[in-house]
Amino acid sequence: MIRKARIEDVKAIHGLLMHREEHEGLVLPRSFSQLYSHLRDFFVVVDDDGKVIGCCALNIIWDNLAEIRSLVVDPVHRGKRLGRKLVEACLSEAVTLGIYKVYTLTEQTAFFAHLGFEPEDMDQLNQKVFTDCLNCPRFPDHCNEVAMIMNL
């Protein structure tokens, strides 16, 4: 089941994001402080026992732009279209909020292309560069992420 994250989910979300070796370091870790501050951005997928097995966030950047970020599904549960469903939940929320341009920075270009995202010039997303990218240890010389965008 996919639902909005709750306060009791923060530790599980943190665990998913911090287990970088399980997802090849493709997701930047987030501190507890960041997760509590942005909890309302997150959707989670829970298994039949109520355990959080995946997460994804919709981060509002500006009045006309939002970002899909922190998409992780526990490796045991991959291949069940859960990542797709999490992204779709975020896209639906973007439309509900009146935001019709959503992007992601990713190394998983085939996954996002399959969902309808298209490659975008990183220079077109300058708001993002001035927020998270400048604080990322992989910026600027070791970043392999590709900007991809979807107009809803």
Automatic annotation (TrEMBL):
It comes from the Bacteria. Keywords: Acyltransferase, Transferase. NCBIfam families: PRK07757.1. Residues 1-152 form the N-acetyltransferase domain. It comes from Pseudodesulfovibrio cashew. One of its GO terms (cellular component) is cytoplasm. PANTHER family: ACYL-COA N-ACYLTRANSFERASE, GCN5-RELATED N-ACETYLTRANSFERASE 2, CHLOROPLASTIC. The keyword Acyltransferase applies. This is N-acetyltransferase. GO terms for molecular function: N-acetyltransferase activity. It holds the Pfam family Acetyltransf_1. PROSITE patterns: GNAT.
